[in-house]
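FAQ
Q: What does a multi-component entry look like?
A: The components come first, one per line:
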Amino acid sequence: MKVAIVGATGYGGAELIRLLNHHPEAEIVTLHSSSQQGLKYSESYPHLHDIWNDNLVDINPEEMAKKVDLVFLATPSGISSKLTPQLKEQGLKVIDLSGDLRLKNSEDYERWYKKDAAPNEILEEAVYGLPEWFKEEIQNAEILANPGCYPTAVTLGLAPLLQQDLIALDTLIIDAKSGVSGAGRSPSAATHFAELNDNFKIYKVNQHQHIPEIEQTLRRWNEAVQPITFSTHLVPMTRGIMATMYAKAKSEFSTEQLLEIYYEAYHEKPFVRVRPKGVFPSTKEVYGSNYCDIGLAYDERTGRITVVSVIDNLVKGAAGQAIQNFNIMMGLDERTGLNFIPVYP
Amino acid sequence: MKVAIVGATGYGGAELIRLLNHHPEAEIVTLHSSSQQGLKYSESYPHLHDIWNDNLVDINPEEMAKKVDLVFLATPSGISSKLTPQLKEQGLKVIDLSGDLRLKNSEDYERWYKKDAAPNEILEEAVYGLPEWFKEEIQNAEILANPGCYPTAVTLGLAPLLQQDLIALDTLIIDAKSGVSGAGRSPSAATHFAELNDNFKIYKVNQHQHIPEIEQTLRRWNEAVQPITFSTHLVPMTRGIMATMYAKAKSEFSTEQLLEIYYEAYHEKPFVRVRPKGVFPSTKEVYGSNYCDIGLAYDERTGRITVVSVIDNLVKGAAGQAIQNFNIMMGLDERTGLNFIPVYP
Amino acid sequence: MKVAIVGATGYGGAELIRLLNHHPEAEIVTLHSSSQQGLKYSESYPHLHDIWNDNLVDINPEEMAKKVDLVFLATPSGISSKLTPQLKEQGLKVIDLSGDLRLKNSEDYERWYKKDAAPNEILEEAVYGLPEWFKEEIQNAEILANPGCYPTAVTLGLAPLLQQDLIALDTLIIDAKSGVSGAGRSPSAATHFAELNDNFKIYKVNQHQHIPEIEQTLRRWNEAVQPITFSTHLVPMTRGIMATMYAKAKSEFSTEQLLEIYYEAYHEKPFVRVRPKGVFPSTKEVYGSNYCDIGLAYDERTGRITVVSVIDNLVKGAAGQAIQNFNIMMGLDERTGLNFIPVYP
Amino acid sequence: MKVAIVGATGYGGAELIRLLNHHPEAEIVTLHSSSQQGLKYSESYPHLHDIWNDNLVDINPEEMAKKVDLVFLATPSGISSKLTPQLKEQGLKVIDLSGDLRLKNSEDYERWYKKDAAPNEILEEAVYGLPEWFKEEIQNAEILANPGCYPTAVTLGLAPLLQQDLIALDTLIIDAKSGVSGAGRSPSAATHFAELNDNFKIYKVNQHQHIPEIEQTLRRWNEAVQPITFSTHLVPMTRGIMATMYAKAKSEFSTEQLLEIYYEAYHEKPFVRVRPKGVFPSTKEVYGSNYCDIGLAYDERTGRITVVSVIDNLVKGAAGQAIQNFNIMMGLDERTGLNFIPVYP
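Then the predicted structure of the entire assembly, as tokens:
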């Protein structure tokens, strides 16, 4: 299977290369960039010295169609909305890591992203690639919208509660924390080392563009889901997301009962690990891997459930999940090329 | 004013020395330790080389009473419950930075701390030293219970909402994050560098001993406060606490209206700074200082208020607030010796 | 004494404000910026919210002369070479924190900085402000060149060896390490959090512009000093410099003998602390303070001396030393306003 | 090929598991620990939840010989000196990651490690496993001493200079820096997060136990090598070593000429990457991989060569190199199971 990567200069693109290098069935043919075409890629990413020696190539759908079967788009928002129709026209399959194709309602996209939405027929065709829950649709997808990093952690953490209608919907609070690689590779005051190191920040309060994506997925499980409260914080670390989620249980539970429900929901999903009672995952425990680890507790004092979900934002939150979707689209075992043990410590 | 510090080998004790060094009215006479008496203090803390050249002294209330007027206890929990009665007997005033004297109900202490509580007459006499709201009581205190780090950030952040009955009490969620110095100076697997660096953890879910302390203070403002949901996370940084707090508003607000209420509540409190609309504090912005900075927003989509409160856990969350209380007890301006600008970056 | 700060938006400028705030004799009247005039300063530095409420002012030497006696220049290189003559013309004293006025030989400046040098009469007049060794000149200075961060750590560490001719000059190696705040506040790929965190880099090998500055100072003590080998590394931390320095001793020593020489050299210098045998300083032990801490050892196996010198690059390496020079220029005790205990941990 | 790991609770052991998991020819049969036998291993390392579900087993050479062919010893110093003879007696091959079997001279071991040395016949038999230079010996080894982390970075960086006699031997200085995982997993004041974060330390000045190991290897290439000056520093990061090395060239060179010599020396060694002129590696560029990356420069001003060598201390500095040696001992391609791309960022 031959693939190309567009937007290879970002962290999502670099992570695709790291992971696909181990993939027995996929071969990266070309790396593309609109801004840095012609540059030797390993000058931008010296960790690939002697590993990837080619230059970045410009983006020409017609030429790409001659060489590859599928294109990974690891571009900033606002690119794949325009590029996907051109790639589709050339008969190319697309896996889009950006937010452009995730929201079914183009008004939502324009409100939260403040950019023009992709054409409606593309939005309708695009399959939202959360493999643990939408595997059948993914199997037939030709255009795949890879979920956002936060939405992956959040929806995997909440799925059993919503699917089985266990919580009072108006009590849901999601407090999420991310490492700084999630902000991308473009330098800015907000990602300047001396401003972030030994510091902890909150950002985009009530305004994060992942809010409508989370709501859209939750509503597939329960239409009555109300507008959610979702906060995002920046942790002085490179990789990792933790979502801490709170909701009132509809009835009394024990932590054991809830864990049983989660084990049941996830024991056949190879990349979701549910932790035993009293144990909660930390972000480093999934570092560099495609796992989403979940811990939870029921508090008898308050009647509230706390669910903790962690991922590596560049793997399960981006490139790893994209490859998991690629595997499913191609009829491969979804674990192909993704059986990395987390890098610890 | 002559003072002694007991428990000088911990971070709270070291921070008292840093801050009192600038205090024009207080003089540290002796540093005490039960475990390391006789040790030259600057061998334990080389940043004090040539600044504090004396040795650590053992703890003898009778001898201490001959030399000082007041004792700061910066000890682990379980010490001041026993030591405070002895110091009181010698006529010494006490400011206790540990959790031993904060909870009025000794059963609460024993349940959450799993240790024997202090005698009831001590618990009754001890004044809870949150200077922004209990200044009058502090003025007459002889035994002062200095608030915990998390409770300081949380209660300052929530006070106006509860005092003015603005939120639905059963909707309150507190998601708190702390730097690692809050865990003290004793080495452990949980504070080992390679386990924490580039990592983000949740700990003591539903079990943190600051839960009853927060509830006790909130109930002084509104007796109907229910058991709270309070989570604590460890951030890979040295100093700083952020509490992100969520609650449904009882009626519709604008962010401006809420900020106005907070400005009104705090504009005469020198160490609380309320940020303008759209701006939220980060922990580094109070690093090394006695400030508590607060930002907030009302979300029209959800009807929820998000309040963000940050402190330096070792200053406003420990030694700085202890000195602020000392100032009030001694009839000084509460800012005396505490007018540090945060260290940034 | 009324002062102005030009280049207030950089870290050196912000640190001058933090430190001068405690200075009993200096008053900051205005903050100046060429790029951000009109901006409310605390919007750029929110840690100064409610502390410094004024806007940034443009740079007009004539107007400045009406209001202040002395100007601190905390500008990037290439500014004060042009601005200092104008300020001098208005009768203003100048303390320049940039590299523009440090090198006596304008060809050296142009070679290493790749910019036009300041006029020769300015370079001749400018006094190099290393207070521990050039105090008398500083007392009469009207234009002061504040030393670079690396040169401060290096020359204080080496002074006794060179002044007393104890080492073979052609064996001197300086391996220096710095926190990232030394790179300034402008975002760049080189200071992007995700590129630096959990990473250690070497930069500007054999090309750092502090090389001629160090050589110039060392040659004041020993004209025979040869071109030095000086390497700089970036440490994933915010503040702090360590210089590890190696040289062959001219004759056999014991570590004790060398320490005695250093104690003798520095015991009357309030900001240099020499550590006892077997103890070496770490950068955090001077964090936020104006200290330079030094440790050393003589190795009998190799005949080499290792000297370790640490400073806070923003304090003794910039703003703190500038104030120390200010004190001396103004006839004050050099410690005035600088008696901060390091912030630890 | 069936293997066992002794000392699995340390970071070296955990890294062996991560890497061997991808090895097509090796199978880990049992994990052993003297201190924590019986413990479920993934309780100690939750990142292995659902991946390694077995318990730790005690150390019984006779039992081990029934199940495996080779034992990796990832134990602290002082263990394998005693255990290796017992394993050998059972016919087991040994790869020892500790320092016990590296020094041929048992007096050196006892002087620098302050422990009893292994029996001389074991020391004589043990092959020092630096695969780039001693591959032939390794092919026939039954007892393999895996090099230390610092010695790996240092000797790979210096090999061409010494083998080709290009430097003045008495001018060699090695300034090395390491991430904190090198200090192991046992908590201590020296590895306490709040003491190390945002801090930079030097340690074991002139006393590091890797000094005789480095000298021993260098003397295989040039007997005249004199006692070296070797300093070690602790960087606030988890993984990575950089060695910055300085020496006077015996004659004049250009940087290009030296790079040519290094390319020649290493172009057939798959895990050593020499960087082009003007480019130096940073530690993150080899993170999680078995690469040793090298950059260098010749300084015409001083006649000195600067060589910079970086490795991941847990991979090329421990577990990865052990597997590279395993591959060679077993007659496999040395890259087998080690073709990981570095994790970046």
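Q: Is there any commentary attached?
A: Sometimes. For this entry: Chain A has a mean pLDDT of 97.
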